[in-house]
Design goal:
This protein is of the alpha+beta class. The chain contains three helices and seven strands; from the N terminus they run E-E-H-E-E-E-E-E-H-H. The longest helix has 20 residues. Bound molecules: Palmitoyl-CoA (PKZ).
């Protein structure tokens, strides 16, 4: 049976939040854990839109915090599936922080999340293929295999000798 295909853009999610006092530390900057919570939700909704299934977070790649986000800032999260494998989907997320009174805006975070679509019993279930269309979507799609091998290697789920895509990056002619 041929697998259903869906354009990656159909999974696009945009979420806007205001940084409130409960979200901040004693320096009045947004707490990292609160940011990761928002990122998890936005990325999960993108994976749900692609799969039309319940999804669980399987892994989160490196998340770095470049600059503090002040109380009262507006945070905008943009998430989209980059590639689907069998039951898993990689989601790319960009986060922007904006201080509206001063008119300043900067990109505060970027990350890749992996979600797995599951059935009612929590067992992994196949998802549609994700089809990239724009040059940026193609670039994220191509890199997804390499990133998948790296995260599965680090999770002890892939043997180094099977990480062919990764090895090809370091192959010496
Ligand atoms: C009806 C109402 C709907 C609800 C409407 C409301 C929704 C409103 C939206 C809000 C949404 C919030 C969403 C929060 C989402 C959580 O926070 S969920 C809580 C945190 N996460 C968990 O509890 C997950 C716990 N882990 C597990 O359940 C299992 O390990 C997993 C992830 C299902 C994998 O199960 P497994 O038995 O190891 O399966 P296995 O066949 O070996 O692997 C399956 C796939 O997982 C991949 N995988 C496994 N481990 C990893 C890893 N470490 N890294 C990357 N990929 C991995 C495999 O590569 C494989 O991929 P494919 O080759 O199939 O593409």
């Amino acid at each position: 049976m041929t697998r259903k295909q869906k354009p990656v853009k159909d999974s696009f999610v945009i979420m806007t939040e205001l940084v409130l006092p409960n979200d901040t530390n004693t320096l009045n900057n947004m707490m990292g854990g609160r940011m990761m919570h928002l990122m998890d939700i936005a990325a999960a909704v993108a994976a749900q839109k692609h799969s039309n299934r319940i999804v669980v977070t399987a892994s989160v790649d490196n998340v770095s915090f470049r600059e503090g986000i002040k109380l009262g800032s507006v945070v905008t999260l943009q998430a989209q599936v980059t590639r689907a494998f069998s039951s898993s989907m990689e989601v790319h997320i960009d986060v922007w922080a904006e201080d509206i009174p001063s008119g300043t805006k900067f990109k505060s975070n970027e990350a890749f999340f992996t979600f797995v679509a599951v059935d009612q019993s929590g067992r992994p279930i196949d998802v549609p293929e994700a089809v990239p269309e724009t040059p940026e979507e193609h670039s994220l799609f191509e890199g997804a295999l390499r990133r998948r091998q790296l995260r599965l290697l680090l999770a002890g789920r892939l043997k180094p000798e099977d990480a062919t895509e990764l090895k090809s990056m370091f192959a010496i002619e």
